[in-house]
Fold these 2 entries.
Entry 1:
Amino acid sequence: MPPGPSIVVLPQPPGLPEPLPEPDAQTLRLETVLGTLNDPLRLTIVRKLLLERAEFDHPCGWFGLDRPKSSLTHHFRALREAGVLRQRQYGLERRSEVRIDDLRERFPGLLELVAAWTPET
């Protein structure tokens, strides 16, 4: 089987704000993570962060999603509460990153499946 797309891993810069509340890595549950990733928009958000990120974390506007802000807030919160994303508050802006190390440790191969997924057009 040929290798899938490469997941972009960037080093954590110094001086980051503390993350918003999230579940501990040891308590992440596969059924919760999969249930959250069941939504194609959420899957798209995670895939884009895995494959296209240019900075350590990104604001909602970077994703280019044509959805109301309240809808996007809901999706990002669901991903954070499931333990898929880590979010930090920068003033009025929240920036997101995938919890790559935590998810790889708990669910080996899951992120590679997400990265290999092809969205319907």
Note: The domain at 26-116 is CATH 1.10.10.10 (Arc Repressor Mutant, subunit A).
Entry 2:
Amino acid sequence: MKTAILNYGVPEELEAKRIAELKALSYFERLERLMAIIEVSYMFKTAKKIQSKK
């Protein structure tokens, strides 16, 4: 897996890079990414909130 790199630049260029990257993925890789997003979303939805003592 590649190391994470912060991207700085014009938002339109960054969006074009992301779209090109997604188009290069196979159907299965796209599905894996979607499932990961759904899992994280579900974990956030069902997580118990911890109230801070202030």
Note: The helical segments are 11-24, 27-46.
